[in-house]
Specification:
The protein is mostly helical and 228 residues long. It has helices at residues 15-35, 47-55, 59-68, 73-76, 78-81, 89-107, 112-133, 144-164, 174-190, 196-213, 217-226, and strands spanning 57-58, 139-140.
């Protein structure tokens, strides 16, 4: 006789989130090992900087593409590839841990393709806003704009749940509020960094996009439009 099927008390992390996490960590491991001279020889010390130059998002390049209406693939790819290049091991580790935590929560409700789309499009939106608003700080790297998009999805789900329970939905925004305060404190202590513009933009886009990506979200929006 086969044993009765039991539900796991811990929901697994969606494979798409694990794949993103592994991509970030493996790339960072190569850079870190190269910097320490453990792989690649002497030239490996410059791998990280070379990757930033080749794959990081650059506001000046973005401005040039906008001005000239030219969109070569070698630069368009930066809208996505920048999320896999980080400035340090700590930078990558924090982004990876937050990706796992938020990706697991959002992925328990959203489909895998919706979770991936939320992460990628939020990262793109963050880069666009950063390129338009902060051209004096041209380089943007790291997964945080995409992670903040997942925070937007998390906030949407919490906002929805609080509404169903009849509680104050403004409480759903407490996490992003805390993170913004922490960024302000770090900015005052260690100097301002305009990359927060990309993070906030990623969050806002992720929150709005969740209205469409959540299960039944698009159907609910169409129903509301028809009843107006």
């Amino acid at each position: 006789m086969s044993s009765p099927q039991t539900d796991s008390p811990v929901n697994p992390i969606p494979p798409v989130v694990i794949a993103l996490f592994l991509a970030i960590i493996v790339i960072e491991a190569v850079f870190s090992l190269g910097t320490r001279g453990m792989i690649g020889g002497p030239e490996a010390v410059g791998w990280r900087q070379g990757a930033i130059q080749d794959y990081g998002f650059n506001a000046e390049i973005f401005g040039w593409m906008l001005q000239n209406g030219v969109w070569p693939l070698e630069h368009v790819k930066r809208f996505i590839t920048y999320v896999f290049v980080h400035g340090s091991f700590t930078h990558a580790l924090f982004a990876g841990v937050m990706l796992l935590a938020l990706g697991k929560f959002v992925g328990e409700v959203f489909s895998q393709w919706a979770t991936l789309l939320l992460f990628v499009t939020s990262a793109i939106a963050g880069a666009v806003v950063f390129g338009l608003v902060a051209p004096e700080r041209p380089w943007l790297i790291g997964a945080f704009p995409g992670v903040y998009g997942l925070i937007g999805g998390f906030t949407y789900l919490l906002w929805l749940r609080l509404g169903q329970m009849g509680e104050n939905q403004a409480r759903a925004f407490s996490l992003i509020g805390i993170l913004m305060v922490l960024q302000l404190i770090f900015g005052l202590l260690f100097g301002s960094n305009s990359t927060w513009l990309a993070d906030v933009s990623g969050f806002g886009f992720g929150f709005l996009l969740s209205f469409f990506l959540a299960p039944g979200g698009w159907a609910k929006i169409r129903a509301r439009i028809r009843h107006r």
